[in-house]
């Protein structure tokens, strides 16, 4: 069971508005700059429910989640089963754009076992009022964008700088980090015995933990993050 509509609506405004106060100057390589710019271009793409490619991506997400259930329409009460606020997911994407759908699709296609375990809340002792999977996923994307300072021309916060280094090693680093962050959030949810009213606090703790892992000296690739193993538990 997921939380009420009024809870979900304010997540973007409250969950991750804290900025990291440690700034560094780092000479990015041409490859790092190129990949950062490509990622930033992705962040500028709004979700457009009239675009055929966006419609197809949404259908693909449905069938990745429920391969044996026919989706009757792109606007349907069925979407609530995935944790959207209402019958039209496009209204939820307005908070973070097309990249949040890309993140969910990457998670579903690359780590289907982990994706379905979180979608169906299969692990641990769950709360009576659970977080809504899809909307939580959008908030994870939003949290990462803020934490990494990706709307700046060149991130200067320490987590952002360290992330761009990882991006230079793996162009899919943001999408992989999303999967890791979603897993970390769910693990924190269980560890804190949280319910829907505590989602913002769970996301805050997740961000703090992720910032800490990104600052480790022996992390040179996205797969070096300690929490990466959560994807294969």
From TrEMBL:
Q: Which Pfam families match?
A: ELMO_CED12 (PF04727)
InterPro entries, per database record: ELMO_dom, ELMO_domain-containing
ELMO domain location, by residue?
A: 53-214
Q: What is this protein called?
A: ELMO domain-containing protein
Species the sequence originates in: Eucalyptus grandis (Flooded gum)
């Amino acid at each position: 069971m997921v939380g009420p509509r009024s809870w979900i609506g304010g997540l973007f405004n409250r969950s991750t508005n804290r900025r990291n106060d440690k700034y560094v100057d780092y000479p990015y390589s041409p490859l790092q700059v190129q990949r950062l710019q490509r990622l930033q271009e992705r962040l500028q793409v709004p979700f457009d429910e009239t675009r055929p490619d966006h419609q197809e991506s949404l259908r693909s997400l449905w069938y990745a989640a429920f391969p044996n259930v026919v989706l009757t329409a792109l606007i349907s009460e069925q979407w609530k089963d995935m944790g959207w606020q209402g019958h039209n997911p496009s209204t939820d994407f307005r908070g973070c754009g097309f990249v949040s759908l890309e993140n969910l699709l990457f998670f579903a296609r690359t780590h289907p076992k982990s994706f379905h375990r979180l979608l169906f809340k299969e692990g641990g002792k769950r709360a009576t009022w659970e977080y809504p999977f899809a909307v939580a996923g959008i908030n994870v994307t939003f949290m990462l964008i803020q934490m990494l300072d990706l709307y700046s021309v060149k991130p200067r916060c320490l987590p952002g700088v360290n992330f761009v280094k990882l991006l230079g090693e793996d162009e899919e680093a943001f999408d992989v980090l999303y999967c890791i962050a979603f897993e970390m959030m769910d693990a924190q949810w269980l560890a804190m015995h949280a319910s829907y009213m505590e989602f913002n606090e769970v996301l805050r703790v997740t961000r703090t933990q992720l910032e800490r892992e990104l600052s480790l000296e022996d992390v040179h690739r996205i797969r070096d993050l300690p929490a990466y193993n959560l994807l294969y538990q």
